[in-house]
Amino acid sequence: MDIKRYKQMRVIIILFLGAIIGISVIANSYMLSAITIFIGLLFLVLVRSKTKITIDEREVAVREKAAQLTYAIFAPTIGIGAFLLLFPGNSGLSVFSKGEWIYVESLGMVLAYLTLFLIALYAISYYFLNKKYGGGNDE
Amino acid sequence: MTNKLKVYRAMHDLTQEQLADKLEVSRQTVIAIESNKYQPSLALACKIAHLFNMKIEDIFIYGKGNEHEN
């Protein structure tokens, strides 16, 4: 199966899935929607396995750039977001202070930990990839 | 970095699709290389040169200031 056929099949499966899930939501049948999602995923995996998809070096380079850009945008965004949600809480600004805005502060905490997790994940993967590609062997 | 891939492909009477199949890459990659939007890896450059029985430097021409194009 070629890539064009695969994309067509994928659209058909997703449309079919959407229709049955819609019906199951209307009919209040969560079991039906769960079974449909499971079978749909199974079909998608089956179709994907029958397709010869060429992932060449340009595609890999594009993915690398996209991941780099995503990290460069996402990490500072959630970091600054966490700072804005947490820092003014201590200075007593009414909008961000505790009370009814406590959920905002909680969100700030979540974002702060998420930022730390992201940075830690980057550092760990950088360390191992650097080792894998011959870095860090200074003598 | 510029290249003469289009010229050599025409000389060997290959379509972009056929060349892509021979190189085991997508047609988009061949288009991107021909239009100098993507610089191939050393392995792919070797493969291209080997396919046309040429040296890499006959196909790919290095120019100053092109070090970080990709």
Describe the structure.
The complex is a heterodimer of chains A (139) and B (70). Chain A is mostly helical and 139 residues long. In chain A, helix 1 runs antiparallel to helix 2 and helix 3 runs antiparallel to helix 4. With 70 residues, chain B is mostly helical. Chain B is 53% helix and 6% strand. In chain B, helix 2 packs across helix 3. Chain B is globular and about 30 Å long.
- Main sheet of chain A, how many strands, which sense, barrel? none
Number of helices of chain B: 5
**Unreliable stretches of chain B, pLDDT < 50, 5 or more residues?**
none
**Cα distance spanning the termini of chain B:** 10 Å
Radius of gyration of chain B: 11 Å
Q: Keywords, please?
A:
heterodimer, A: 139 residues, mainly alpha, 4 helices, 79% helix, B: 70 residues, two-stranded antiparallel sheet, 53% helix
Write a short abstract of this structure.
The complex is a heterodimer of chains A (139) and B (70). Chain A has 139 residues and is an all-alpha fold.
Secondary-structure blueprint of this entry?
The complex is a heterodimer of chains A (139) and B (70).
Chain A (H helix, E strand, L loop, with lengths): L2 H24 L3 H20 L7 H35 L10 H31 L7
Chain B lengths: L1 E2 L1 H7 L4 H8 L3 H8 L7 H10 L4 H4 E2 L9
Antiparallel strand pairs in B: 1-2
